[in-house]
Design goal:
The complex is a heterodimer of chains A (91) and B (147). Chain A is mainly alpha-helical. Chain A contains three helices and no strands. Chain A has one domain. Chain B is of the alpha+beta class and 147 residues long. Chain B has two domains: 48 residues; 99 residues, no CATH class. The N and C termini of chain B lie far apart (63 Å). The chains are: A mainly alpha (91), B alpha+beta (147). Chains A and B meet through α2 and α3 of A and α1, α4, α5, β2 and β3 of B.
């Protein structure tokens, strides 16, 4: 019961991070760099919290969830670096 | 002996990845994984610098705490402005280990408040940070009043 409550709390926090991190993309006043920072909140932190919540709900799938967490972390970080690098090139 | 240790660690890493992807530790699966791991070329494992790599991997364990903390810091900034700074490349990353270099970049970029945009030179990363416009203005005013 407690684990279910904790996992849903973490899942909600992850979803909140997802929404908060994704909405600034629509704001034209923000720079591409700020958008990359907020996308880190959504893609990396939000997604990882959702994965942690899923682990608490279904621990038997831990190997697949661990692979998902590692892949998400690597993909999001490298993609942020590539986009940041392209945006910061001197014209 | 050192090379044997390196080879064993590479093999262990590969087999761990195999077991995670297949999500099975049955004997047949382990043997299949071992054959696959041995068939993949090992590359130049002799150049693997464990002394540079292990501390970098241990530093990654601190990331979940920093990650959540910086999320809330970023959320509290209402008037964001771009702030580029230079950050020194970790001493272990400059010792010639490509993996240590990658982990150094990973640690900075993974947290929401900092983002590596490029490498200025062999010793310095160019890092983008988010600053609050009102905080920067307050700092400038206090500097001017000090003068």
């Amino acid at each position: 019961m407690t684990i279910t409550f904790v996992s849903y709390a973490i899942l909600s926090l992850g979803l909140y991070f997802w929404i908060w991190g994704t909405l600034p993309i629509l704001n034209k006043e923000h720079s591409i760099f700020y958008k990359l920072h907020t996308l880190t909140v959504a893609d990396s932190v939000g997604s990882l919290l959702i994965v942690v919540a899923l682990f608490l709900l279904a621990p038997q799938y831990w190997p697949l969830l661990l692979v998902t967490a590692i892949s998400l972390s690597l993909w999001n970080t490298i993609f942020s670096y590539i986009l940041g690098n392209i945006s910061d090139r001197p014209s | 002996m050192a090379n044997f240790t390196r080879l064993t660690l590479v093999l262990l890493f590969r087999i761990t990845c195999w077991c995670l992807v297949t999500s099975s530790i049955e004997t047949t699966n382990l043997l299949t994984g071992l054959v696959v791991c041995l068939l993949i070329p090992f590359g130049d494992f002799r150049r693997l610098k464990m002394r540079a790599l292990i501390p970098e991997i241990l530093l990654i364990l601190r990331l979940p705490y920093d990650m959540i903390k910086e999320c809330f810091e970023l959320m509290l900034i209402n008037d964001p402005i771009d702030n580029f700074t230079e950050e020194k490349v970790n001493i272990r990353a400059t010792s010639g280990s490509k993996f240590a270099e990658f982990f150094d970049l990973f640690r900075i970029t993974f947290t929401p408040m900092s983002l590596v945009t490029r490498r200025e030179n062999s010793d310095v990363w160019r890092v983008h940070l988010v600053a609050s416009a009102s905080d920067v203005e307050t700092k400038v005013k206090s500097k001017e009043s000090d003068k």
